[in-house]
Amino acid sequence: MWKTINNGNQAGAYWTEGQGKAVMLIHGFGEDHSVWEHQTAFLRMYNRVLVPDLPGTGQSPLTDNLSIESMAEFVYAILVAEGISQVTMIGHSMGGYVTLAFAEKYPHLLEGFGLFSSTARPDSEEKKEARRKSIRMMEQYGSEAFLRQTLPGMFSESFRNKQPARVENFVNNALSAGKESLIAYYEAMIARPDRTAVLRESKVPILFFVGKDDAAVPPDSVLEQVTLPATASIHIFEQVGHMGLLEVYEESNLILHHFIAFCQRTV
């Protein structure tokens, strides 16, 4: 069921279904809530699942001065509107950055959280320059050419060869994202700080999902972080790229289900 919030500072929409303890799934760049469709369909049998469209995506309008922190406040506003005081939060890619910002400010609200093909480290200078180059490309040529060039590489070569129609469907869905939103997301990601301290100081379990063929978030950089938390659940997949939630969705569903259940038992 679709719901909306508008508290004067934050406005937007989110999908919710299921019963039980709360789980929030946060999408990444070039995605919307539907990227989690397989996980939502599975987890709703066990949990109350909330899946927002982040500001600037889908049914949520772009807000001024968008930042990773302001998106974390949007997520917080949803929990307040729903009367939720404890949640397990999973973020994919940019959604992981939002999850970390939320964990930094509202650790007491978390039963656990997950970085799904994401990282606590900031962009390197090389990565920042690559994002700035992409922003210039979108400003000059529009977002469609950029998305068609970039998004297929988010999948492993193996998956692209075996499932070209699913890759094309993902790219076509992303084309609905506005250029202004995509640029705002890139600027927000460039500006985000190092949040490895959030991992180190966490008192709740943290999940890491790593695709060995992930070109967007290099596996080696993530593996350096998995020893920082006191309790970590680590999953590494061969021949999986940045989009493991689609590439190996059945395995992802089970991983998330077991992690969520573990978090809720350890609170």
TrEMBL record:
<dbReference type="InterPro" id="IPR000073">
    <property type="entry name" value="AB_hydrolase_1"/>
</dbReference>
<dbReference type="InterPro" id="IPR029058">
    <property type="entry name" value="AB_hydrolase_fold"/>
</dbReference>
<protein>
    <submittedName>
        <fullName>Alpha/beta hydrolase</fullName>
    </submittedName>
</protein>
<feature type="domain" description="AB hydrolase-1">
    <location>
        <begin position="24"/>
        <end position="247"/>
    </location>
</feature>
<keyword id="KW-0378">Hydrolase</keyword>
<dbReference type="GO" id="GO:0016787">
    <property type="term" value="F:hydrolase activity"/>
</dbReference>
<dbReference type="Pfam" id="PF12697">
    <property type="entry name" value="Abhydrolase_6"/>
</dbReference>
<dbReference type="InterPro" id="IPR050266">
    <property type="entry name" value="AB_hydrolase_sf"/>
</dbReference>
